[in-house]
Design brief:
This protein has 199 residues and is mostly helical. The chain has 9 helices and no strands. The relative contact order is 0.20.
């Protein structure tokens, strides 16, 4: 049976086309591709979930400044996205690691959470260059990306603020530790991979 499967597997791999890191979903348009982009890139999703939990964990005291800082940094970073080269994978993962550890600790001064929110949006936005989308529609994709990232942070922040029972707080801190652990594993594998060591 194994010998019968080998040609089928070889044909399957041979028929695969080139993959891109941020390839769009066909048929839904540039804006909706941008809107879904933060959900479809795991490093971005980890960073945004961690920031949302961090902002909500200390709401409303820290969210009053962290959310406007996030929105301003998103707008600034997205305007620079097409002019700058694509970032490596590690900045969003590094932000996810730091924010996950902050959520797990449950204690972080206000300015540090604002800085993490700005770092997260810069890392995600600068790594969100739309691929295979016409140049005249790239701005639609970038607006969608900014809106998608903001929705993730606002909804998760609101959920984390609403869950105020002691066991809820423990669950949020546990989720932060899992985010940090996942980001650290991927960062380690990325930094130790032959491609990154030869670069």
């Amino acid at each position: 049976m194994r010998t019968a499967l080998a040609p089928a597997v070889a044909i399957l791999f041979a028929s695969c086309g080139a993959a891109t890191a941020h390839s769009p979903v066909k048929g839904i348009g540039a804006f909706y591709n941008g809107l879904l982009h933060p959900l479809l890139v795991p490093a971005h999703l980890l960073a945004l979930v961690a920031i949302g939990l961090l902002v909500g964990q200390h709401a409303p005291r820290q969210s009053r400044a962290a959310l406007p800082a996030f929105v301003a940094a998103t707008a600034a970073a997205l305007t620079l996205t097409c002019a700058l080269p694509t970032l490596p994978r590690w900045p969003p993962l590094a932000v996810a690691l730091a924010a996950g550890l902050a959520v797990a600790s449950g204690r972080l001064p206000g300015p540090a959470s604002w800085l993490l929110a700005v770092a997260a949006t810069a890392a995600v936005a600068l790594d969100s260059q739309p691929d295979v989308i016409p140049a005249d529609q790239a701005w639609l994709a970038l607006i969608g990306t900014g809106l998608g990232a903001a929705l993730i942070i606002v909804y998760l922040g609101g959920l984390a603020a609403w869950l105020d029972r002691p066991w809820h707080r423990i669950a949020i801190r546990a989720l932060g530790s899992w985010i940090a652990a996942g980001a650290m594993l991927v960062l380690t594998l990325d930094l130790l991979s032959p491609a990154s060591s030869s670069a």
